[in-house]
Amino acid sequence: MNLVARDQKVIWHPYTQMKNALTPISITHGEGVYLYAEDGKKYIDAVSSWWVTIHGHAHPHIAQKVAKQLQTLEHVIFAGFTHEPAVTLAERLLPLLPGQQEKAFYSDNGSTAVEVALKMCLQYWNNKGNTTKKKVLAFKDAYHGDTFGAMSVSGRSIFTNPFAELLFDVEFIDLPTAENISNLQSKISNLKSELACFIFEPLILGAGGMLMYEAKYLDQLLAACTENEVLTIADEVMTGFGRTGTFFASEQLSNRPDIFCLSKGLTGGTMPMGLTTCNAKIFEAFLSEDKLKTLYHGHSFTANPVACAASLASLDILLEPATLANIKRVEAQHRQFFEQIKGHPKLRNVRQTGTIIALEWETGNDTSYLSGLRDRLYTYFLTKGIILRPLGNIIYILPPYVISNDDLAYIYRTIQQALDEI
Ligand SMILES: *Cc1c(COP(=O)(O)O)cnc(C)c1O
């Protein structure tokens, strides 16, 4: 049996209706922005393999550091024990985060980083003896992950429907604009006694459709939160590590979040790892003689040394001047394409933030994720050797920073062809 036949016998793929799924493409190896399939075909990974592979595939520096760590210490229980990679990573990362972040709490992925952040905030008020601040504020189209807490604070959609009644109650708001900002601020002030925290994806809502909004209005929301004692959580799982043009998207704000959630690009996309950081205010609310004030949370693989080593290696690469130059280059290429393609009659909207550009197809009234357009576009680009996974009628490019101008030009050209042909 070939690999695909073996796969179909034993594997259940994510986000996939297995009854009529396309046959999966078997990838044998990767290098830089390219993925190589068993049949000899080469693909440009234009979505950084679900937004994680920021430096390209099989990066030699990360591979070398991971291999070395594997031969030294592969894992150790992280309660009562510590190790060099976990401490060094926290020491190097915390000062880079905007907002006087003082403590790092490790977990395994973006969803768990969000769960930890929510627990920190909800228990913060509990530890303070406040029994009314229990509600979370979030954006209507937010995406914060697939575990139950993370799903609860994400927008309600076809993905959450089967669990709707089990998700906890959240106060959802629209993205802030010049028109609604004062209403949103009043809402926060009116709900002051109920709101424990506000969780948000800064500058761009990823899975919700690459929806972009201005730092200026987010700043005004955060100011209202601070004024009304609502804790703030920046979910930078997607936006972190250069994606929006700055090291963290929150650098583009003047208000400082209390908590950050990181994952995806953290290990350079090498392996799973989540990180929740907080400032002294949060941490100190858990310091007590009273054991009930402890943060009782942990995972078997908390602070896995190999994942920490991968993160440290990824950080080395990120801090090289060449990486920032690449980020600025991708940003400038996207900007040129934006200027060229905006106003195209088949596009409802084109938007760009940093290294992400999103194009929204005009579909009349049919905008559902399940519409045939999404599958047609997906297959069209695969045929052309490009991995793009449209979110419904929204195509976006979110590439590894090392992508060449030639490969970007090829993707832009192919999108233009798709506009002509589909
Ligand atoms: C992907 C994502 C998550 C969830 O991360 P997983 O590692 O997939 O669990 C959370 N928040 C944001 C903003 C994300 O983009």
UniProtKB/TrEMBL annotation:
Sites where the protein binds pyridoxal 5'-phosphate: G110, S111, D235, H299, S300
Subcellular location per the Swiss-Prot or TrEMBL entry: Cytoplasm
Predominant location: cytoplasm
Pfam families documented for this protein: Aminotran_3
Enzymatic reactions: (8S)-8-amino-7-oxononanoate + S-adenosyl-L-methionine = S-adenosyl-4-methylsulfanyl-2-oxobutanoate + (7R,8S)-7,8-diammoniononanoate
Binding site for substrate: W50, Y143, K264, G298, R389
Molecular function per GO: adenosylmethionine-8-amino-7-oxononanoate transaminase activity
Protein's UniProt keywords contain Acyltransferase: no
Pathway in which this enzyme or protein is active: Cofactor biosynthesis; biotin biosynthesis; 7,8-diaminononanoate from 8-amino-7-oxononanoate (SAM route): step 1/1
Record site feature (Participates in the substrate recognition with KAPA and in a stacking interaction with the adenine ring of SAM), residues: Y15
Cofactor: pyridoxal 5'-phosphate
EC number: 2.6.1.62
Keyword line: Aminotransferase, Biotin biosynthesis, Cytoplasm, Pyridoxal phosphate, S-adenosyl-L-methionine, Transferase
Keyword hit for Transferase: yes
CDD domains per the UniProt record, alphabetical: OAT_like (cd00610)
In-chain residues carrying the UniProt-annotated modification N6-(pyridoxal phosphate)lysine: K264
Role, per record: Catalyzes the transfer of the alpha-amino group from S-adenosyl-L-methionine (SAM) to 7-keto-8-aminopelargonic acid (KAPA) to form 7,8-diaminopelargonic acid (DAPA). It is the only aminotransferase known to utilize SAM as an amino donor.
Assembly and interaction partners: Homodimer.
Family: Belongs to the class-III pyridoxal-phosphate-dependent aminotransferase family. BioA subfamily.
Protein name: Adenosylmethionine-8-amino-7-oxononanoate aminotransferase
Name of the gene encoding the protein in the UniProt record: bioA
